Amino acid sequence: YGARTALSPQRKYVYYYIALPVVQAGQTVGIAYLSRHTSPIIRAVSVLKQNFRWAMVVALSLAGLLSIFLAQTITRRLRTLQAAAGEFARGNKSWGLTPRGRDEITDLEKAFVSMAGEIERQNAYNRDFLAATVHELKTPLTAIKGAAEVLDEGAADKPEARARFLDNIQF
């Protein structure tokens, strides 16, 4: 069994061949020899290579499209979360983020919604505290202002009235 190469100026020819002894009555009487040109095999390998190249192009194209689709799917939700954070930072309370799913991005969305709710609660507490503090400070300031006005209008001329109003102002 083997291959023999015949060279010509234009091409290289390759043949497969097989040689078997012909035996009669225990004696070799001849050799059976068969050869075949390899061009059909070469053409078949060439077609396989071409098909393989096309399959690789299609597979890589599909992989690229799938990766773009998955990246868009993931980043769309992150962009929505980023937009909601921006709206919240600008004071817009209707940023409309609704966490759905059971993945890490949903966990991040839930944490953002929880954080936003806690910030709103703290802001409401601070507003209420400030309003109560301002109200509590206004009452004594109003009394002091009133006593000063009474003193200015002539009560300062009467020593017992002046002493009483100054006691109220000084606490």
Structural write-up:
It is a single chain. With 171 residues, the chain is an alpha+beta fold. The chain is 65% helix and 18% strand. The chain has helices spanning 39-89, 104-152, 159-170, and strands at residues 2-7, 12-24, 27-37. It has a 3-stranded antiparallel beta sheet with strand order 1-2-3, with no helix packed on it.
- How many beta-strand elements? 3
* Beta-strand content bin: 15-25%
Shape call: rod-shaped
User: Which structural class do the helices and strands define?
Assistant: alpha+beta
Q: Distance between the terminal alpha carbons, to the nearest Å?
A: 123 Å
Give the H and E element order.
Answer: EEEHHH
The percent range for helix content is 55-70%
Biggest beta-sheet profile: 3 strands, antiparallel
The DSSP helix count reads 3
> Kindly state the mean pLDDT as a whole number?
83
